[in-house]
């Protein structure tokens, strides 16, 4: 567990474990300066949408992380 976040809580809160909305496409943006795990999670999220027959674009923005990608 990390702090108060145990494995079950992490699974429950994960976007990958949520029910997809009935329709729609998604753009998944992730910083290229992120850790391997952030990049893996972003790829997994985009793949989950694609596996459901939806359009998902993965945008890796070089030299940024989750703090400065939204600026």
Defining key terms:
single chain, 71 residues, alpha+beta, two-stranded parallel sheet, 2 strands, 32% helix, flat
Per-chain topology:
Blueprint: H1 7-13, E1 26-31, H2 36-51, E2 56-61
Describe the structure.
- By secondary structure, the protein is of the alpha+beta class.
- It has 2 helices and 2 strands; from the N terminus they run H-E-H-E.
- Helix content is 32%, strand content 17%.
- The protein is flat, with a radius of gyration of 13 Å.
- The model has no long low-confidence stretch (mean pLDDT 87).
User: What would you call the shape?
Assistant: flat
Instruction: Name the structural class.
Output: alpha+beta
C-alpha end-to-end distance? 31 Å
User: What does the largest sheet look like?
Assistant: 2 strands, parallel
One letter per element, helices H and strands E, the order comes to HEHE
Low-confidence residue ranges: none
Determine the mean pLDDT. 87
Bin the helical content. 25-40%
Beta-strand proportion: 15-25%
What is the overall number of helices? 2
Instruction: Give the tally of β-strands.
Output: 2
Rounded to the nearest angstrom, the radius of gyration is 13 Å
Strand order in the largest sheet: 1-2
What's the gist of this structure?
The chain has 71 residues and is α+β, with helices and mostly antiparallel strands. The chain is built from two helices and two strands.
């Amino acid at each position: 567990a990390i702090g108060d976040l145990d494995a079950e809580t992490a699974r429950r809160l994960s976007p990958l474990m949520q029910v997809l909305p009935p329709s729609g496409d998604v753009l998944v943006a992730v910083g290229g300066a992120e850790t391997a795990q952030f990049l893996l999670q972003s790829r997994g999220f985009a793949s989950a949408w694609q596996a459901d027959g939806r359009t998902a674009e993965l945008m890796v923005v070089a030299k940024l992380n989750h703090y400065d990608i939204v600026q």
